[in-house]
Amino acid sequence: MNAAGVVAAAGVGGQRFALELEALAVRLRRVTARVHTRGRGRFSGVGAGVIWSRDGLVVTNAHVVPGRRGQWPIVELFDGRSFEARLLARDAERDLALLALERSELEAATIGDARSLRVGEILVAVGHPFGLGGSLSVGVVHAVRRGDAEDAWIRADIRLAPGNSGGPLATLEGSVIGINSMVVRGLGVAVSAHVVEQFVHGVMRSAESASP
Amino acid sequence: MSSSSTATGGATLRALSDDLAAAVDRAAASVVAIHARPRIPASGVYWRDGIIVATSHTIRREQDITVTLPGGATGRAQLVGRDGGTDIAVLRLAPVPPSGPLAIPERAVTDSVRVGSLVLAVGRPGDDGVSASLGVVSTVGEKWRTWSGGEIDRFVRLDLAIYDGFSGGALVDATGRIAGVNCSALARGTPLTIPNVTVDRVVDALLTRGHVARGYLGVAMQPVRLTRAMAERFGLGTGEVATRGVLVVMIEADSPADRGGLLIGDVIVGIDGGAVGEPQDVAEHLSGERVGTRLELEIVRGGEKRTLPVTVGERRPSRDAKGDRQDPEGRGGGEQ
Questions:
Q1: How close B199 gets to chain A, by Cα (Å)?
Q2: Contact, A112 vs A170, CB < 8 A?
Q3: B185–chain A nearest CA distance, Å
Q4: Among the options A44, A135, A137, A165, which is catalytic?
Q5: Is residue B275, in this structure, part of any structural domain at all?
Q6: Is A104 among the residues known to form the active site?
């Protein structure tokens, strides 16, 4: 279901809903990057990424940055600035990749915790479906796996398209609780933020121990 | 690692979101998983004391049916009856669990579901807890008849996703009150809701008689056009419907139509004084309460109009006991 549907259904409160959604979309767009690759050979399409830290770490899907020789990722920020990025790590199993920009003082996403989500709670996604920048999708939490607090995936009743890959799935407070990764039988599936945090920490730890 | 910018979400959106999550919580106590087919289980609603409503097309085996209850416990259920016409099946939970989160759902006020109403489909397609999808009601129409002859009191079409195993689950409003049972098998995959009033009627019929009575003539028909001259000659009037009728193309042996003397090639142009322009018009006269009563068929045979009395029979319940029978087109000619 799309945002317009929610707003239309809200009746007299519609105007306030629209304004709140708009503000949320603006906030999320500021921490959502557009990611594609440049170089030789076949390219993947355009995906999205989340600015994970002020000092230039960007998280996206592994399938957005295939990591082929002679190709490098390009990260474009919401303000139009575009940077070559270093591909620090790829984890195909969790469909995550970590990119580094030689920048600091970036506006980073607020990271939330998907483990406290309730079924039916409203979620939003921002991405670049069909190459259109900063598109917003609205949906709800579809299911929460009972007795499995460490569930790595979020299942959302939300309409996603390929350009949403690597982009944020967020709560109404703008906290990023997952990285949109795939569509399975119409369901949006995202990697839970705590899994992304583990991945990022793991990469940074091994980078530190490797440096002299 | 993450920045700590202040989270200032929209208060109105958050309130709605909390309401929706609470609505799902509330409905979850009434929505069960039904294990009666291979692979993905389907959903069911705890409708009355000890009684679960499910969709007939998701019940593939009539024995060894188990139910996953809201608390996660497993119960056993017996199939009481099913009605392929409305796709409703009734199961009896036996034994009823002594306690636990299982509850009969609170009903939405009749007619509270309108076009544009924000609604949730709540299902339990397995043991992993309850699932939900959000959308709006996209159509609310009159009473309608399904391709297999079931009568549904309101046509309620949904703009939301009915995921695998969602059939038999609850349609709830934003407060968690139930408006009906969801089904994706009545209109070629389109998500529909069978309203509470229809579910109640069918549950009553299945509990008392084991099946839903449905009138039956034993004919297959197709619409035909009459010339204006014919319509005038037979005194059918001059309107659009006057130039239409239904041609009898098949008659079951020893059926009510056969016993009444109807012949292949007869064109039915009226019943009990009302016009008949398509097979659906005949079906309108074959509701359960017409069983055993007499219909005055106005037919055209050999260039002459005549009236033929036919006593409505009862469709044998075994005819729609299959439940999972699928109609490839769901329209066209009619078999009544």
A1: 25
A2: yes
A3: 17
A4: A165
A5: yes
A6: no
> C-alpha distances in angstroms, A192 versus A153, B5, B211?
5, 20, 48
pLDDT digits (tens, 9 = 90+) for B258-268: 999 999 999 99
Rounded to two decimals, the ipTM of the complex is 0.85
Q: What is the pLDDT of residues B145-190, one digit of tens each?
A: 888 878 899 999 999 999 999 999 999 999 999 999 999 999 888 8
pTM (2 d.p.)? 0.81
B72 contacts in chain A (CB < 8 Å): 146
Contact predicate B188/B330, CB 8 Å? yes
Q: Which of A12, A93, A123, A99 is nearest to A47 (CA)?
A: A99
Locate the chain B residue with the closest alpha carbon to A122: B17
**Neighbouring residues of B305: CB distance < 8 A, sequence distance ≥ 6:** B234, B235, B269, B298, B299
A91 catalytic residue (yes or no): no
A142 is catalytic: no
- Cβ pair A159, A109 in contact under 8 A: no
Inter-CA distances, B35 with B38, B53, B192, B291, Å: 8, 13, 22, 35
Residues B49 and B174 in one domain: yes
Nearest CA in chain B to A143: B131
Report d(CA A171, CA B17) in Å as an integer.
10
Q: Binning pLDDT at 50, 70 and 90, where does residue B5 land? A: very low
**Amino acid code (one letter) for B188:** R
In chain A the domains, ranked by start, together with CATH numbers, are: 31-100 (2.40.10.10)
Here the tokens at position A160 are 């996603």
Q: Give the other-Cβ count within 10 Å of A183's Cβ.
A: 16
Beta partners for residue B178, in sequence order: B107, B172
Q: What is the DSSP string of B310-326?
A: EE-EE--GGGGTT----
* Residue at which a domain ends, from B145, B177, B212: B212
Same-domain status, B176 and B52: yes
Shortest alpha-carbon distance between residue A54 and chain B (Å): 7
Residue A158 CA: distances (Å) to CA of A118, B135, B192, B317: 15, 10, 20, 41
**8 Å CB contact of A172 and B133:** no
